[in-house]
Design a protein that fits this description.
The structure is a homodimer. By secondary structure, chain A is mostly helical. Chain A contains ten helices and no strands. The first copy, chain A, folds into two domains: 50 residues, Arc Repressor Mutant, subunit A (Orthogonal Bundle), CATH 1.10.10.60; 141 residues, Tetracycline Repressor, domain 2 (Orthogonal Bundle). The structure holds a DNA duplex.
DNA sequence: GTCTATAATGGGATAGAC
DNA sequence: GTCTATCCCATTATAGAC
């Protein structure tokens, strides 16, 4: 953890504005809130830092003061870009969820169960590795009972999960996979893949390493895929009990 | 406490001889100062409430004021029983870890891989159901990078995990289970079983229920066991198990 | 053991400077 | 449009009085 936290110096931080305004189409949208590339850039910087702090301290524990200080701006400057703490938090979670749901849609559109699952697990693990703090913020929110983001989870994840389960059930009817409880299967896949983001510190600690390597993630992927795919291997012709959901 | 951190030297560990059990750390303070029964009772009440609050708000977010108020005492009365927030937090985590490690020791002492794993998964899921807040506090600590409890994890979990992996490797040598990465297998079992504590809110939300029922936990247990046991079925025809080393 | 005072922190609103 | 300064109020850790 780079803790090169520096006190917010009172020195004036004059950043020259973008010297050349986009002369191409300035009049396209007259007074419509121009996205202003520099603003988007700064927002992104705030969001990244906020993700780090929310991941480490949770919603209550994180402070706007520290988030702002970590990127060298004042708290009031931060509040200019996001109206309040809650809005900043919601944006962080929105972005994480958007990334995850993209991977889930891919899963539904495939037509080869094994390959689709392998791809999904691989993608989810890659997110965990590349953007662990997003997963951490999400899990902390869920642990607390999803008091601030529960509605968004129900609204955005619920429908996709149902579609996913329907896809699995179709595959099961076609005899391509065994009929297990597919909802719980998704819960389990989520849990495991996210654990490699959230608990990286613990896993690395127990492996005696400073951090997990690409090889470690490869081993995890191999084992997770093995577990999922073996569990979904059709039970041959032993018996095919139509299991109640 | 005891900084028994040892690098996982694969070289210095040649003999599979049964190692002397690495003296699990005695649970916190012993009977050094004869605590009265009423004091123990009050301590337990504080610990239970602290577990709830730390689970919901994290270390930074929880306040001694609220914990004390929830059980009808003053903050200063609480501070009489626990010197500060940090000590209270450590005690909560000590108690959780003690419970988990007991289940792990049982796993090592069994002689039937399948039965042992089923029992372990069932026990871990039962903990998740009966005492979800302990798991939540633990996971939140790990998510934050284990800044306050990392040493205890390394000292208490590490040795047991190694013993566990050695047991699995013996079973694999005997051809009773397939040879997978057993360390990651344990990581995965932990992640999944704990997820049913930490993420109960999310799972229930997505199932459209106010809370998970015993049936839900039963379904989870069935699927988790299936995944683990199928993944450990010896590959038989593919490559013959290495009978002797 | 309980109650109260103080200092520090943090979120938020408003006004105003570049 | 972007950023800073001042004020306000709630919360809380800590210390000390009773």
């Amino acid at each position: 953890m780079t803790d090169a936290r520096q006190p917010p110096s009172a020195s004036a931080r004059r950043r020259p504005e973008a010297p050349s305004p986009p002369a191409t189409a300035p009049a396209a949208d007259t007074a419509a809130k121009a996205p202003t590339a520099s603003r988007l850039l700064k927002e992104q910087g705030i969001l990244t830092e906020a993700e780090n702090h929310f991941a480490q301290f949770g919603f209550e524990g994180a402070s706007l003061e520290n988030i702002a200080a970590a990127i060298g701006i004042s708290r009031h400057n931060l509040l200019y870009y996001f109206p309040n703490k809650e809005a900043l938090y919601q944006r962080v979670l929105d972005d994480v969820l958007t990334q995850w749901l993209a991977g889930m849609e891919d899963l539904s559109h495939s037509d080869d169960p094994q390959q689709a699952l392998r791809r999904y697990i691989r993608a989810k693990l890659r997110y965990s590795r590349e953007r662990p703090n997003g997963a951490k913020v999400f899990t902390k929110e869920v642990i607390a009972g999803a008091p601030r983001y529960g509605k968004a989870i129900a609204a955005r994840v619920g429908p996709l999960l149902k579609a996913e389960v329907r896809t699995f059930e179709r595959w099961a009817r076609e005899g391509r996979i065994a009929r297990v409880n597919f909802t719980h299967l998704m819960f389990i896949i989520w849990s495991v893949t996210q654990a490699y983001a959230e608990q990286e510190a613990q896993f690395a600690l127990l492996l005696g390493k400073p951090a997990l390597t690409e090889r470690d993630y490869g081993k995890a992927e191999e084992l997770i895929c093995r577990m999922v795919i073996k569990a979904l291997e059709p039970d041959a012709a032993l018996d095919n009990p139509p299991r109640a959901d």
